[in-house]
Amino acid sequence: MKDVRFKDNETNVEFLLRTSAIIYDSSKTKILLFHPLKRKVYMLPGGKVKQLEQTKDAIEREIYEELGWKLEFEFVGISEEFLLDLEEKTQFINVIYKATYSEEIKEKSFYGKEGNWATFNWIDLNELDNIPVYPKEIKEIALEKINHVVNEVK
């Protein structure tokens, strides 16, 4: 199946449905963030939802493809993201889940199974204010203070 995405060539706007996860360590003091090496921000791991795929199934698939982990996910919230800073505009609806990685953390930073174009990094929740994250409300979502975010990057 194809990804849930479409592009309106008249307006040059693309829409896509994404899912991501807040993955806590067993102490729930750290979360796993994804850092594409070509970007300046850290993000929640995840990916695009395929047509006729439930978002929970999509996050399970994405985390297994990227990390080889089978985790139990629970719904957390939704992030609406509008990237308007480039000629090609993008609107995302991002369905966010949470899970706990209960195994021992062997490396604080590592490459995923899909190659060395991005790293995965265990970040202390207290450090989130000091690093560039997108969406910027990741800490509040991780601490379950909010469950709906709307962001525009112009």
Description of the structure:
The protein has 154 residues and is mainly β. The protein has a single domain, classed as Nucleoside Triphosphate Pyrophosphohydrolase, CATH 3.90.79.10. The chain is 12% helix and 47% strand. The protein contains 2 helices and 11 strands; from the N terminus they run βββββαβββββαβ. The strands form 3 sheets. Strands 1, 2, 5, 6, 7 and 11 form a 6-stranded mixed β-sheet that branches. A 3-stranded antiparallel β-sheet has the order 3-9-8, with no helix packed on it. Strands 4-10 form a two-stranded parallel ribbon. Strand 6 and strand 7 form a beta hairpin. The longest helix has 13 residues. The radius of gyration is 15 Å and the shape is globular. The model has no long low-confidence stretch (mean pLDDT 93).
- The CATH homologous superfamily is named Nucleoside Triphosphate Pyrophosphohydrolase
- Rg, please? 15 Å
What is the helix content?
Answer: 10-25%
What is the name of the CATH topology? Nucleoside Triphosphate Pyrophosphohydrolase
- Molecular shape: globular
CATH architecture: Alpha-Beta Complex
Mean pLDDT: 93
Determine the number of helices (DSSP H or I, runs of at least 4 residues).
2
Q: Ends: how far apart? A: 32 Å
What characteristics describe this protein?
154 residues, mainly beta, Nucleoside Triphosphate Pyrophosphohydrolase, six-stranded mixed sheet, three-stranded antiparallel sheet, 12% helix
Concise summary:
The protein has 154 residues and is mainly β. It has two helices and eleven strands. The strands form three sheets. Strands 1, 2, 5, 6, 7 and 11 form a six-stranded mixed sheet that branches. The chain has a three-stranded antiparallel sheet with strand order 3-9-8, with no helix packed on it.
